[in-house]
Design a protein that fits this description.
The protein has 744 residues and is α+β, with helices and mostly antiparallel strands. The protein is 16% helix and 22% strand. It is built from 13 helices and 32 strands. The strands form nine sheets. It has a six-stranded antiparallel β-sheet, with no helix packed on it. Strands 22, 24, 25, 28, 29 and 30 form a six-stranded mixed β-sheet that branches. Strands 21-23-27-26 form a four-stranded antiparallel β-sheet. Strand 15 and strand 16 form a beta hairpin. Helix 11 (653-660) crosses helix 13. The chain binds a DNA duplex (21 and 21 nucleotides) through strand 11 and helix 8. It is found in: Cytoplasm; Nucleus. One of its GO terms (molecular function) is DNA-binding transcription factor activity, RNA polymerase II-specific. This is Nuclear factor of activated T cells 2b. It comes from Cyprinus carpio. Residues 306-488 form the RHD domain.
DNA sequence: AGCATGTAACCTCCACTATCA
DNA sequence: CCTGATAGTGGAGGTTACATG
């Protein structure tokens, strides 16, 4: 149950029906002048609503004694006082158009720089300035502090904009309450003859969909749709949404809260709460109904939302001490459900169970919260998927408690990692919700397209508190999951492969376990370059007499070149016909023998730099690049052509490799031999000004010539021998190797 | 460039089963 | 055992977007 206060809020009656205290739904919003406040409207609102739950706006101290106990929020400002009672406060977020009860708000502290009033750091003496709608001083009565996200968060994220909104809705130009009857409302509620509400929020009908669509290009947080003619308060809340999701004319100063920026060395570790990185800028806060929220994960140590690293931040899956690991991967396809559909259940594992995640190395006694969200399938740029959201599955089949959060428009599930369970969680509560492409693509700033963008990954995060008060954040992403309907039934899916490598000669039999295999299924091994050019493909022999729809037995074809010296990564997929194709699976061909690398002669001064005494054994001479067995290294004549293919691609995989991994790649000679921008052995760009490649690592041991060319000085690259094979297992070098081999 | 057409993908809805109270 | 509610699954048809001529 997550409520995004930047979306729609409205009132419902005890039956969950939105309040009939309707108003002109096109009422002007976000009047900034408190003088426009209409006290009569306010009093009418107050009159029509029960009095046990209050939202209070006015001059008085909002330290309402029952604020937390009875879900009462209070607003403080310069305008007259308004009391709004909420039998239940419901909400439409951009995911669920059915009401979400937020009657007992619990929330974290949203920090929204320049858009919200920020929490005071300590006491009410802190001044919050807002020259937009309320130039006075705000005196928070409760300091949010670290992890104390209740009232302070409400104050900051909700109440101040709410005050603004209420002011707006209460303007004389706005009818406080008119016209819309409950019937009208009911007419807009789902009318499906079959009751099949989505878990747990229910679904939206096509009629609603069309109506809403015609009224608003999208329903997301940034541009909330205003499709429900609700009470004045709702308009107020809509105004609230607008006031927050659009840059409000409010200058906010938070004197006591400084931002800090992390260095690379701090990746994965985050400081205590008071330090909030700018990018955190949490745009959303959320409420959780008391009936499940705190109880569900009672005692779970969850990092306060305001300090969470952004969801598109790359985080390591392990540190020296901890490792977050997916023990059971999800199946490679899961038909996501739309808002208009019922739930399609939780993501399952290929084994029939559900994904399992474990945090290793944790010795604390406090449970931690495992966060789950839906990420993109792009492993080079893992970020929340714009078109899919995690969906909380409830019901008897779900054994794992979970709760939802909303963070920057991304829904997050939190599951407890319990020490008594060895910090292992069975994620049987995570479904996948598909958002309509049209809705998302129209979002301001959205660049992704939804069409055919149907692959996702489950992303798991955990934030481990440290004795120092810092947090170590770990993240791991699952294998990709195809979420479309079609693939579930027509595309073959490989869930498990018996082998992941063999020698270049091929020959071993391999069993594939998966789905949608047919008697016509083919298994194609192929090799592509980094730029998706196909270098090679070979069809495996399939033993059709043994095959079933879930099992495929095949014989691995030989690799095209039996004389490789390094493991070569290729892929294979299962084809059903021309277009029904499984996701590519990784396979590695290994050389017949591991080559021994002879040292290349090293200049004396270089040798001295290595800390060696005496002279190296003189082996082969440049410009050749040979291995101990006399074969050529890939730094041979083709090498230069190959590595020059990436002159200006800083994000290219080899570059990434050189930067992200401690595999040495350094030139000791002049790069002037290359035509065009020079690149290092792994494609990393050599500075045109310095002629240097990226910083050399300190543990290079063996010098290998990487190319030769007439009339130029040999250029050497240092490669730590023990890393060589592993290096080629990496994508970066694989990409390089692909290009290299393409050139051959 | 603009249009018509075919195709594939998207999205919604229906039918059905299973489970449980 | 029946009924109703709920959850989940599979399928299909209308709509929409895109590719192609």
């Amino acid at each position: 149950m997550v409520v995004n206060v930047f979306s729609h809020l409205f009132l419902v009656d005890d039956a969950g029906i939105p309040s009939s205290h309707g108003t002109n739904r096109t009422s002007p919003i976000a009047h900034q002048d408190p003088s426009l406040y209409d006290e009569e409207s306010a009093s009418q609102l107050s009159h029509h609503l029960p009095t046990d739950d209050l939202l209070t706006y006015g001059q008085s101290d909002y330290r309402h004694p029952s604020m937390l106990a009875s879900h009462t929020g209070a607003l403080q400002g310069n305008g007259p006082r308004i009391e709004i009672t909420c039998p239940d406060l419901y909400h439409y977020d951009h995911i669920h158009t059915n009401p979400v009860n937020i009657s007992r708000p619990m929330l974290d502290i949203p920090y929204r720089e320049n858009q919200c009033l920020s929490p005071a750091s300590s006491t009410s003496s802190t001044s919050w300035h807002s020259d937009g709608y309320s130039p006075g001083t705000y005196s928070p009565c409760i300091s949010p502090g670290v992890g104390e996200g209740t009232l302070a968060g409400l104050t900051e994220a909700v109440l101040c904009p709410m005050m603004q909104a209420i002011q707006a809705s209460g303007s004389p130009n706005t009818s406080p309450r008119t016209s819309i009857t409950e019937d009208t409302f009911l007419d807009r509620r789902p009318t499906s003859p079959r009751s099949r509400s989505a878990s747990p929020q229910g679904k939206r009908t096509y009629t609603e969909y069309e109506t809403q669509r015609s009224q608003s290009p999208r329903f997301g947080r940034d541009e909330p749709a205003e499709f429900y003619p609700l009470a004045n308060l709702e308009d107020s809340m809509n105004s609230l949404s607008h006031s927050l999701t659009k840059p409000i004319p409010t200058k906010i100063v938070r004197p006591n809260l400084e931002y800090s920026v992390y260095t690379e060395s701090q990746v994965g570790m985050f400081p205590p709460m008071p330090e909030v990185k700018k990018e955190f800028a949490v745009e959303s806060c959320y409420f959780m109904p008391a009936n499940w929220s705190s109880q569900a994960l009672a005692g779970v140590c969850s990092m306060p939302v305001a300090a969470l690293p952004a969801l598109d931040w790359p985080l390591p899956s392990s540190t020296e001490q901890y490792e977050l690991k997916i023990e059971v991967q999800p199946r490679q396809h899961h038909r996501a459900h739309y808002e208009t559909e019922g739930s399609r259940g939780a993501v399952k594992a290929s084994t029939g169970g559900h994904p399992v995640v474990q945090l290793r190395g944790y010795t604390g006694t406090e449970p931690l919260a495992l966060q789950v969200f839906i990420g993109t399938a792009d492993d080079r740029n893992l970020r929340p998927h714009a078109f899919y959201q995690v969906h909380r599955i409830t019901g008897k089949t779900v054994s794992t408690n979970s709760q939802e959060r909303m963070l920057n428009g991304t829904k997050i599930l939190e599951v407890a990692l319990e020490p008594k369970e060895n910090m292992r969680a069975v994620v049987d509560c995570a479904g996948i919700l598909k958002l309509r492409n049209a809705d998302i693509e129209l979002k301001k700033g959205e660049t992704d397209v939804g069409r055919k963008n149907t692959r996702v990954r489950l992303v798991f995060r955990v934030h481990v508190p440290q004795p120092s008060g810092q947090w170590i954040s770990l993240q791991v992403a699952s294998q990709t999951i195809e979420c479309s309907q079609r693939s579930a039934h027509e595309h073959p899916v490989v869930d498990h492969q018996e082998l992941d490598h063999c020698s270049v000669l091929g020959g071993p039999q391999m069993m594939l376990r998966g789905q949608n295999f047919t008697s016509e299924s083919k298994v194609i091994f192929f090799e592509k370059t980094h730029v998706d050019l196909q270098l090679w493909e070979a069809e495996a022999k399939v033993y059709r007499d043994k095959c079933t729809s879930n099992l495929l037995f095949l014989e691995i074809p030989p690799y095209r070149d039996p004389n490789i010296y390094h493991p070569v990564k290729v892929k294979f997929h299962v084809l059903n016909g021309k277009k029904r194709c499984s996701q590519p699976q990784n396979f590695t061909y290994t050389p017949l023998s591991v080559p021994q690398i002879k040292p290349e002669p090293v200049e004396e001064y270089q040798y001295a730099q290595l800390g060696c005494t005496g002279r190296p054994i003189m082996g082969i001479s440049p410009p050749s690049c040979h291995l101990a067995d006399g074969r050529m290294m890939p730094g041979g004549p083709s090498y230069q052509r190959a590595h020059c293919m990436y002159p200006a691609a800083p994000q290219h995989a080899p570059m990434r490799y050189a930067l992200d991994h401690t595999v040495p790649a350094v030139f000791s000679g002049s790069p002037a031999h290359t035509a065009g921008p020079a690149t290092s052995a792994y494609g990393s760009r050599v500075s045109p000004t310095t002629g240097r490649s990226p910083p050399a690592r300190s543990h290079q041991q063996t010098y290998l010539p990487v190319h030769h060319q007439r009339n130029v000085s040999p250029v050497r690259v240092t490669i730590k021998q023990e890393n060589l094979d592993q290096a080629y297992l990496d994508d970066g070098l694989y990409a390089y190797h692909s290009v290299y081999t393409e050139q051959c």
